[in-house]
TrEMBL record:
It comes from Ferroacidibacillus organovorans. InterPro entries: HerA-like, HerA_central, P-loop_NTPase. CDD domains: TrwB_TraG_TraD_VirD4 (cd01127). SUPFAM superfamilies: P-loop containing nucleoside triphosphate hydrolases (SSF52540). This is Helicase HerA central domain-containing protein. Pfam families: DUF87. Residues 145-416 form the Helicase HerA central domain.
């Protein structure tokens, strides 16, 4: 049975012209033009009652027809008017499609006949149709993602297919103050109601630290090194791959950079092999690589590099006289004094408490079992037996130094991705539990490489680009959130098959979003600057149709409200917090 049950009085006009993708409709009587708003969906019956063509109004106009002389009189008759709308066909609804009821396809199966009535889709019809588009089914256990209401009809709930939203990646884009953080919080709230949700949010400014349902994690700051709390997370140096270590301590502008890289490679392999030997794991000793996450003491790395920097080798000759008579003669080794600057950079980072989460982790992070504990903290969810904490994890990176932020964020993402890759897939890939990575403020660590980027940023990009290209196979989804899409990697954005665009006013940002849309939807660019706060255009596999939605407000909003300057200046002064801020600056942490 069709979801559409229109009668003639509900029509807004009749088809008067048809081409391959557009239909011209004459609106009569004139008062029905009020229902013909640009962006509204309409339905036109196709070849039979089972088939309805779906279109979107993209133009409305009124023409005056030439006045005519009334027969037998000198006066002119009042000029009649002709009201017309132009509709772009965007798909076909079939009440019955084989064994399936209520099927929608983007294909235009047929074109309408002249004189067919055109009906606005509104009210219950709009909600029923958009539920089909949003893949809402009749399963009572199925929970669709209720993201808001439709701008066309605020009584109709807007749903998205969350499976396709996350497995095919999504980008949430909008200017400052447009409602991005609230949208993220709304999605997290609904994900938290699911039995085994698994989400990791990269929080760069501490905006989401007050969400009561989320498991709060914080990358250790200088004040956490002595007595770290339960929610403090260390990322020890041995988690870094060889290339990540290089980007952290090797200066590629130096002439000795190749020698430094080789020395680091040999020293890391030596340090890891010593750990494996001490554990008596001969099978691992034969299989591990320089990138294998095997714990080793950072002081051992310094010692090995120092030995290479001070190394002297035998010349094969002996002293024949003097105090050294009979002793072998030596010469400077191949790396003698060529690693001095490298060692200085490394020692500076070891002494800097801001990098303590890397180089000053507690002994509990230096054990063979430490990797499992770290991954359980990041990837655990309530569906795992014995795991009682929330599946929504907020990782606060606000105390991570900005110069290493890209590589540290990508380290967490890479670790999660690699665990998913090496998880036994099981039958029908049921062995891998899907996980979503929410990349807040993505432009800070996923930069557009066209403007030139550092070695640290390049390595971070490589990790995330691999996830964007291959994550779907292993159950890793990306939600990229940014206020400056023009500054985000185009490679990553191009892999996002769903775009949630809030208000955008910058021309560069608008052009980036438009380039991600199909050609037929390019006109959506004109809508973006005029969107209200909390209003978005949603395009992609999660909805099938370009949809303008008023987003729901979260019950627990993040700490991202814009401060009202004038109102605060007009209010009574508050307690002076400058002294505490000065102490926080000195301690590089918020007490």
């Amino acid at each position: 049975m069709s979801i559409f049950a229109f009668n003639e009085e509900q029509s807004i006009g009749e088809v008067r012209g048809v081409d391959t993708s557009r239909v011209e409709v004459r609106v009569y009587p004139p008062d029905k033009l009020l229902k013909a708003r640009v962006g509204r969906l309409v339905a036109i019956q196709g070849q039979d009652a089972n088939e309805w063509l779906i279109g979107m109004i993209n133009r409305v106009w009124r023409d005056s027809v030439e006045s005519q002389i009334v027969s037998g009189e000198d006066d002119f008759a009042p000029p009649p008017e002709q009201n017309t709308i132009q509709v772009t066909l965007i798909g076909t609804y079939l009440a019955k499609y084989g064994e399936k009821d209520d099927h929608f396809t983007r294909a235009v199966v047929s074109l309408p006949d002249i004189n067919r009535f055109v009906f606005p889709i509104e009210g219950n019809s709009l909600e029923a149709f958009m539920s089909i588009v949003g893949y809402v089914n009749g399963d009572p256990n199925f929970r669709p993602l209720h993201i808001g209401t439709y701008a066309l009809d605020r009584k109709a709930k807007a749903f998205l297919n969350a499976d396709k939203l996350f497995q095919r990646h999504a980008a949430l884009l909008g200017s400052t103050g447009s409602g991005k953080s609230w949208t993220v919080a709304t999605i997290l709230e609904q994900a938290n109601t699911l039995q085994s949700s698994n989400v990791v949010l990269f929080d760069l400014h501490g905006e989401y630290t007050k969400l009561p349902y989320a498991q709060q994690l914080r990358i250790a700051g200088p004040g956490d090194l002595a007595e770290p709390g339960e929610n403090v997370l260390f990322l020890p140096h041995w988690l870094l791959t060889f290339e990540e270590i290089q980007s952290l301590i090797v200066d590629y502008s130096e002439q000795s950079a190749p020698n430094q890289s080789m020395a680091v490679l040999e020293s890391v392999i030596r340090a890891k092999s010593e750990t494996i030997e001490s554990l008596g794991m001969q099978d691992l000793l034969e299989l591990f690589t320089v990138d294998s996450p095997v714990p080793y003491p950072v002081y051992r790395l310094v010692q090995l590099l120092t030995d290479k920097n001070e190394e002297e080798t035998s010349t094969g000759e002996f002293y024949v006289q003097g105090d050294k008579k009979g002793q072998p003669k030596t010469k400077q080794g191949p790396l003698h004094d060529k690693l001095t600057r490298l060692l200085i950079r490394l020692q500076n980072k070891l002494d800097d408490r801001r990098y303590g989460f890397l180089f000053q982790a507690p002994d509990s992070y230096q054990q063979y079992e430490s990797l499992y504990k770290i991954t359980e903290t990041l990837m655990g969810h309530r569906g795992i037996s014995g795991y009682e904490r929330s599946g929504i994890k907020v990782v606060d990176f606000s105390e991570v130094p900005s110069d290493v932020l890209p590589i540290i964020v990508s380290l967490v993402a890479r670790l999660i991705y690699q665990i998913q890759v090496w998880t036994e897939p099981g039958e029908n890939n049921t062995g891998r539990h899907p996980i979503l990575l929410v990349c807040d403020e993505a432009h800070l660590y996923l930069p557009n490489s066209s403007g030139g980027i550092s070695a640290l940023e390049r390595k971070s990009l490589e990790n995330f680009e691999r996830i964007a290209k291959e994550g779907r196979k292993y159950g890793v989804g990306l939600l990229v959130v940014s206020q400056r899409p023009s500054d985000v990697s185009t490679t990553i954005l191009s892999q996002c098959n769903n775009i949630i665009s809030l208000r955008l006013t910058n021309d560069r940002d608008k052009s980036v979003v438009t380039s991600l849309l199909p050609d037929s939807l390019g006109g959506i660019l004109d809508i973006l600057p005029g969107l209200e706060v909390g209003e978005a255009v949603v395009v992609g596999d999660a909805t099938l149709l370009p949809t303008r939605i008023l987003l729901n407000r979260p019950k627990h909003p993040p700490l991202s409200s814009t401060i009202d300057f004038w109102s605060r200046w007009n209010a009574d002064g508050e307690e002076n917090t400058l002294r505490q801020a000065v102490e926080n600056l000195r301690r590089q942490g918020r007490s």
